[in-house]
Amino acid sequence: KQPGNGVAISEPVFTASLMENDAYDRIGDEPPNYEETSFSGGTTSNGNGTGNGEHRAVRPSVVSAFGHDTLDRVPNIDFYRNAGSVSGNRAVRPSLQELHDVFQKVSVCVSSSPLQPPLHTSVYRPVSVHQISVTNTVEDREGSDGTPSDDVESVIPLDNKDGTVRFGWIKGVLVRCMLNIWGVMLFIRLSWVFGQAGWGLGIVVIALSCVVTTVTGLSMSAICTNGVVRGGGAYYLISRSLGPEFGGSIGLIFAFANAVAVAMYVVGFAETVVDLLKENNAIMIDELNDIRIIGCISVVLLLGISVAGMEWEAKAQIGLLIILLVAIVNVFVGTGIPASTDKKSKGFFNYDAKIFMENLPPDFRDGETFFSVFAIFFPAATGILAGANISGDLKDPQDALPKGTLLAILITGVTYLGVALCVSATVVRDATGNINDTIATGMDMFCNGTNTAACEQGWNFSSCDLHIQYNNTKMEHSLQHNKITRHTHTVMTMVSGFGPLITAGTFSATLSSALASLVSAPKVFQALCKDNIYTALKFFAKGHGKNNEPIRGYVLTFIIAVAFIIIADLNVIAPIISNFFLASYALINFSCFHASYAKSPGWRPAYRYYNMWLSLFGAVLCCGVMFVINWWAALLTYAIEIFLYVYVTVKKPNVNWGSSTQAVTFVSAVNNALSLTGVEDHVKNFRPQCMVLTGAPKNRPALLDLAHCFTKNYGLCLTCEVFVGPRTETLTDVNAGMEKNQMWLNKKKRKAFYAAVACDSFRQGTENLILCVITCCHSLTADTAGVQSYVGVLHDAFDFEYGTVVLRMNQGLDISHIIKAQGEYTHTHAYTHTHTHQCIKQKQSEYFRLVALTTPQSPQVVVVNERLVSTSTQFQRKQGKGTIDVWWMFDDGGLTLLLPYILTTRKKFKDCKMRIFIAGQPGRVEQDRMKSLLEKFRIKYADIHVIDDITQNPNSNSWKMFEDMIEPFRLHEGSKSTTLAEALRKDNPWKISDAELDTFEEKTNLQVRLNELLQENSRAANLIIVSMPIARLGSVSDHLYMAWLDILTKNLPPTMLIRGNHKSVLTFYS
Q: Is the dihedral of CA 883, 884, 890, 892 positive or negative?
């Protein structure tokens, strides 16, 4: 190295360029341009050639894992990130074309300019130095500094260096859900519900409510663990599952429902305060206006807490939770305190079995029924989406939402049940409140009727008639139901140890619910506006501050809440709001069912405790409850939702979230197309099917318009383009035009497909468009033309960026000769259909002997054919317990991992477990990295094995087998004179030359060594999946490439070579 003059190569070396982004290291395929790795122990050098001692932590380059030059990348999570989600940290894997195209040699000039990155040199084996250009290796967002942001897609949670507030599952989900579910129903209407229904049916009411919320919670858990969850709560879950049409319609009404719910809860709080003012003769103007004044003041204070930030809002929620917990404990404590005479006159006694049994049967009054009582109670069980609504502010929504929501449902359900049963065991239904209504001692023998328990306690409540203790002052519906009316003292105040704590609990329940709704509405609305479903609402998408707070959404929610507070009579709108919430629950359940029903490979929820039919039952149950609560409100909800659905469908927002609706549409299209193949065309159903040679569709619009007049929306129209010229020159245009031209057709509302081919002549291209070409597979033992044709098909697949799968079975796949022999045998021996059937069943051994006789080989061919027939039906049989071994060597977009996963979801392979094999360095780092990646993809596996000795040379026996395999196809020009060698190359250009073997010695060693490792580790596997090696056009001869594939899969169980098209087929986004 010469200081000041860059790098002078005085002997064969390779250069390693330090990248700015260590998520993606750019390495050449043949050219030895490598990144310096953490294993080299070298230091960087500055522009003058002097080391500065700075160490760079860079991912080990592929040469460390495989021992040869390659542009291929090992699997890495950065290849699967969305461009807009991680600031400067999304890596782009090399494309299939970059791996496969003809290698271009260019001169390398190493400059000492300070504008170029510093170079580090190390001695390596003699190779020529080339250069590969890999574009778009990293996509940065505008203003990115190249460092990871606080994105929720990160493998490891990032430090909150910017002060962004993120909540765990307790503070973010559990606390919020419990506060929302523990509404004023607990203190005001619960005793009335059990008074009407008795504790027998009362338990049914609570249980049925919990069934609805639990099923919804299970469905939500499945959806939110099927990928990364962003902000938006119910809207985000539904829109990413069912698409923008369902999500856009429910998102708007859900946000509106939360905004109006703020007014509901605040009015409930204001009415409680006004009651206290009335008791103390402190009314300011009149009761109605006092409610408005107190309500407006309260919502302003709540808005201040919300705008101050999520941290302040969370602290307020914790304080309200403490008050609420104290109030609940106060109820339980009060039931154990000996009752005073005043409390006994009002019907409260300590625990008594006779009181408990007297309250068992229902006693419906004032026209109430089980369903009307259930309709009043059920809204108290809602609030399970309080945590989901702030999903964007959670540290790990996938973990927090299932855990926090389901635990909140359990705790609150047990609390409701415990409080209700305690009250049922201590309070009688009817009481006069008169302390003089006592019975003389010894007169309890005359007790009978409905007040037996009180009579035996020495109290005569027979004059109560229809006075209902559990409803001292009638209230039409509960606060949680959003119907708020005036109320005074309740049973809970009497039962509690300290009455004012119940009032404090009521304040806490109303304010906490109002605060949660005030935060939820803007968050959901902001997520909806960000997706630009309704373009007119884009204004509200902007966030402010470190937490991206929706300040504009807060203001809008405040205006809506104040408007409904001023109305101060919410009894009409309340059932509509309740139905809006239930509609959200119904769609969450249906989303889970629909995604499961579509059986899309992308549906891989980490949460396994759900059932698609249970989710469907939950959806139907939610719809039923909507009608139970209020039939006209349910119909109005459906009407609004349908209107918004149609609106979004007509507007067709430019989004694609991979919804289950798309998956079902695809399945339906395939099934419909297949059903047509079994139906003979009839003249009555004739429709024009036009192949229109338009070139690019926009180039000949008149021709396209005329064809469109024929097919309109009911016939098949193919617009075709032929690119004439060398395929290497036209291939880029073909691939670039596919999506662009199809999008143009869609934009012009022309229901047509675009297809393109690249050929040497227009006529040949047109023939290719018309004909369906079927290509057969060949082995290395086939003739030269057969091998070239077979490898040519693989090269074509790579050129057109198709994912490619090759299946290798030792016994072979072709049974055409057996089928032919079977036909000859049947024709010779079978005279009737019945006799044919019996002959084939009873003389199968004779049939195989016939095959042996008709084949010019030894009698051992009978055994071979028997094995071949058995092998041909191998995948028709159920696979026993075993493994599917996946050797995921290179990152091809995930197809190598996705296909075996799909197999494990099929009945025939359900008993097989996946084992993952990767190349890497010794230690736990590579294993932990792959474990994290698989968990992100929600793919179950049995083991992860890191192969750290893949770079060792194969043993002599394996190498001898490979040499014997290629011997008939070798040129052996090295041992001959120059003139003779040139003549041999000219006469046999397809043969493998000695120079080629020397050039690709390391890659050849890798294939032979991989076969040894496969024999060692996967010999007993049911199926082996291996990343398919790629040979560059013009660099590797067809026979050498076939030899690689042959030796790689030789003497193994059924083996699939897979190479995706290097476009992601896996994602960890929802």
A: negative
